[in-house]
Amino acid sequence: MNPSRRKFIKTSTRIAAATGMAAMIPVKLSCSNANDQFIIGSIGLRNQGFANLRGFLEQPNVICGALCDIDTRILDARASQIEEEYGQKPVHYRDYREVLDRKDIDAVIISTPDHWHCLMMVDALDAGKHVFVEKPLANSIEECRIMEDAAKRSRKVVTVGQWQRSGPHWQDAVNFIRSGDLGKISRVKAWAYTSKDILPVAPDEDPPAEVDYDLWLGPARERPFNKNRFHYNFRYFWDYAGGLMTDWGVHMLDYALYGMDVPEPVSAVAAGGKFSYPEGARETPDTLQILYEFEDFVISWEHSVCLGNGPEKRGHGVMFQGNNGTLFVDRGGWQVFPERISDEEFKMEEVPFQTGPMGFYEHIQNFIESIKTRKEPNCPVKVAGDVARFAHMGNLAYRTGEKLYWDKETKSFINNDAANRLVKPVYREPYKLPEI
User: How far apart are the C-alpha atoms of 318 and 256, rounded to whole Å?
Assistant: First the structure.
C-alpha cells in the first residue's frame, strides 16, 4: 500500500486568534477509511522510545507491526503492554534489519542511542521506509551531513524528534521575535539544568543474558560491558552521545537558531568540566558553558547535569534579549519582560505568560500528515542537522580546549586539526560509515 494515497484528514485545524496567540490543537487525527492502516515498526523501546511508540498508537488507524530491542526483557515487557493497552500483537525482533526487511512496514521509529541514528536511518531509507528518528540527529558532524544527503536523495519522509517545532506557543514566540518589537537582539541565552545525582563508578562485568551487547555497541568501539554506559546513562559517554549538550541542548538551541534565523556561528569557545561530582563515572561534563559568536550577536549555552535551579529558577529555557525587552520561552509557554526607562515607563508593553501544548502529539501528527501530503515536515533533517552540528561544535570546543572558528563553506574548523579529526567517527568493523 502506498502511504502517499493514505486518506488521513485532521479533525480540525488550528484557529488563529486576533492576537496571534496559539489555539489548542486536538490530539488525534482522523482517517477517511477505517480500514486504511498505517503500519509502523519501533526500534528502541526504553524510556523515550516507548513514549514515542505510544504517541503514534494514540493516532487512529496506526498499527504497530514490529517491535525491536536488543534487550529481550524490555522487548517482552513492551509487547505485553502493547497488547494490554492497544489490543495489538506486533512481532518482535532483536535485529533492526529484520524490521526493515518487512514489506508491510510503512515507517520506522528510531529511538536508539545516538551512535546508531545515522546507520539505521540510511538503512531504513534504502529499505523504502519513512523515518521518525530521535534527536539529536547524529553523534558527529560528518554523520549529520550523511543523513542530510540521504534524506535529499530519498523519496521518503523523515522527521526528527525535536517536537517543539510543532508546538504552537513556540512558533508564536518566534513570530513575536521576528516582529522586531524586542528591538535589536544582541544576546540569546539557552540552558538546561537536570538535577541528577552522582553516577557512582562501577566495575566492568558480563552483559546480562537478555542483552545482545555486541549489537548494542554496533559501530561504536569495542569495550567491556559496564552498566554505567548502558541504557539511559549512555548519553554521558562520548562513544555514544554528547552529554546534556546534545540531549537537552538540541531542543533549546534549535529555538535560539530558529529565532535568530542564522544556523552557523563564526566561532565557539567553551568552559566546564566534571565540577559537581568529579569522582563520578560520567565522561561528559556535568557543568558546561559555551559562547557562540555570530556577526552581530552571541548565543550562550549553559547546563548542569547535577543542579536543578537554572536561570530565573527555570530548569530549561531560551531568552532573547533585545534593546526593548526580553522574551523567555520554555515548554510551558512564553512571556516578554520590557526594558525599563524609568520607575513608571517602559520601552514596550509587557506580554503576560502565554501557554500552549508542548508539541509532542502535534509533531507525530505532522509526520503522518507529511507522508499523506508530501509536504516538508516541521523538523526535516536539514533543521535537525543544523542544530546537531551546532551542539557538536560546542562539545568540540570543550574537548579541544580551544576557541574554534567555523568555515561555513567547507563545513570544517579553520586551522584546527584536533577538532577536525573529531568531525568524522571511526566505525567498528564490520560496520561501515555510509557513503552518500
Answer: 7
d(CA 175, CA 256): 13
Q: What is the pLDDT along the chain (436 residues), one digit of tens a residue?
A: 333 222 222 222 222 222 233 323 333 333 333 458 899 999 999 999 999 999 999 999 999 999 999 999 999 999 999 999 999 999 999 999 999 999 999 999 999 999 999 999 999 999 999 999 999 999 999 999 999 999 999 999 999 999 999 999 999 999 999 999 999 999 999 999 999 999 999 999 999 999 999 999 999 999 999 999 999 999 999 999 999 999 999 999 999 999 999 999 999 999 999 999 999 999 999 999 999 999 999 999 999 999 999 988 899 999 999 999 999 999 999 999 999 999 889 999 999 999 988 899 999 999 999 999 999 999 999 999 999 999 999 999 999 999 999 999 999 999 999 999 999 999 999 999 999 8
Cβ partners under 8 Å of residue 343, min gap 6: none
Structural fold of domain 3-165+360-380 = Rossmann fold (3.40.50)
* Position 245, amino acid: M
pTM score, whole prediction: 0.91
d(CA 289, CA 394): 9
Instruction: Identify which of 188, 391, 408 has the alpha carbon closest to the alpha carbon of residue 296.
Output: 188
Cα–Cα distance between 426 and 140 in angstroms, integer?
Answer: 10
DSSP annotation of 26 reads: P
Topology at the third CATH level for domain 169-356+387-421: Dihydrodipicolinate Reductase; domain 2 (3.30.360)
